[in-house]
TrEMBL record:
This is Peroxidase. GO terms for molecular function: peroxiredoxin activity. It comes from Flavivirga aquatica. Gene3D superfamilies: AhpD-like (1.20.1290.10). The lineage of its organism: Bacteria, Pseudomonadati, Bacteroidota, Flavobacteriia, Flavobacteriales. Pfam families: CMD. Keywords: Oxidoreductase, Peroxidase. Residues 40-120 form the Carboxymuconolactone decarboxylase-like domain. The keyword Lyase does not apply.
Length: 196
C-alpha cells in the first residue's frame, strides 16, 4: 500500500492537461504524478521538468534517454521506475535486442560504444558515493558533446528524484508498467516489490 494515495486524474485540471505528455511516453498518467498533485505546484513543476529533460536537442535519442533512466533506476533499486523506463524505451523505439538484453549492455553487441559510455555514466552518476571520474569523463567525450552530456545528466538527475519519490512512497504500479517489467526484466528477477 502506498504511503500516500494517488488522487483522481481530474483532481487538478492544469496537471491533467500537462500530464497528457505521459500518454505518449507510457500510455497512461503515472500514479507518481497523481500523488504529486496533492501539491499541484509540485506536479506541474515535475511534468515541465520531465518534458524539458526528455526533449531531444542532439544525438541522445528518446530511446537512449529511457535506457539511461533504466540503468539509473536499476542502480538505486526502484522497481517502479525500472518498469516505467523500460516501457518508455520500448515505446520510443529502442531496438528489440537492446530491450531484451539491457542487463548486458556492457558486453552485448546490440549496444554501441557510445551507448555503453552513456549507460556507464548513468550507473556511476547514480551511485552513492558518486562514481563519475576522469575515466568516465574521457569515455563520454570520445562520443558525446557537452550539450549531450548535460541532457544525459538531466535524465539521471530526474530519475534520482523519481527513484527516491517512488520507493519512499511505495507508489502503486500500473498494469502497463507491470507488463513491460515482466516482459523485459522478469527473467532477471524483476517484480513489483512494494509497488502493489
Amino acid at each position: 500500500m502506498p504511503l500516500v494515495t494517488p488522487l483522481s486524474a481530474d483532481h487538478d485540471l492544469e496537471t491533467k492537461e500537462l500530464a497528457t505528455f505521459f500518454n505518449e511516453t507510457l500510455g497512461f498518467c503515472p500514479n507518481s504524478v497523481l500523488t504529486m498533485q496533492r501539491r499541484p505546484a509540485i506536479s506541474k513543476a515535475f511534468i515541465n521538468l520531465n518534458k524539458a529533460v526528455m526533449a531531444n536537442e542532439g544525438r541522445v535519442t528518446s530511446a537512449l534517454k529511457r535506457m539511461i533512466a533504466w540503468v539509473s533506476s536499476n542502480s538505486t533499486g526502484c522497481r517502479y521506475c525500472q518498469a516505467h523506463a523500460i516501457r518508455a524505451a520500448e515505446r520510443y523505439g529502442a531496438e528489440q535486442e537492446q530491450l531484451d538484453n539491457i542487463w548486458e549492455y556492457r558486453t552485448h553487441p546490440a549496444f554501441s560504444e557510445a551507448e555503453r559510455a552513456a549507460l556507464d555514466f548513468s550507473l556511476q552518476a547514480s551511485q552513492v558515493p558518486n562514481g563519475v571520474d576522469e575515466t568516465i569523463k574521457k569515455r563520454l567525450y570520445e562520443h558525446w558533446n557537452e550539450g549531450e552530456i548535460v541532457e544525459m545528466l538531466g535524465v539521471i538527475s530526474l530519475f534520482g528524484y523519481l527513484n527516491r519519490w517512488n520507493d519512499s512512497m511505495g507508489t502503486s504500479i500500473e498494469n502497463g508498467a507491470v507488463e513491460s517489467g515482466n516482459q523485459y526484466l522478469g527473467k532477471h528477477g524483476w517484480g513489483k516489490g512494494k509497488h502493489i
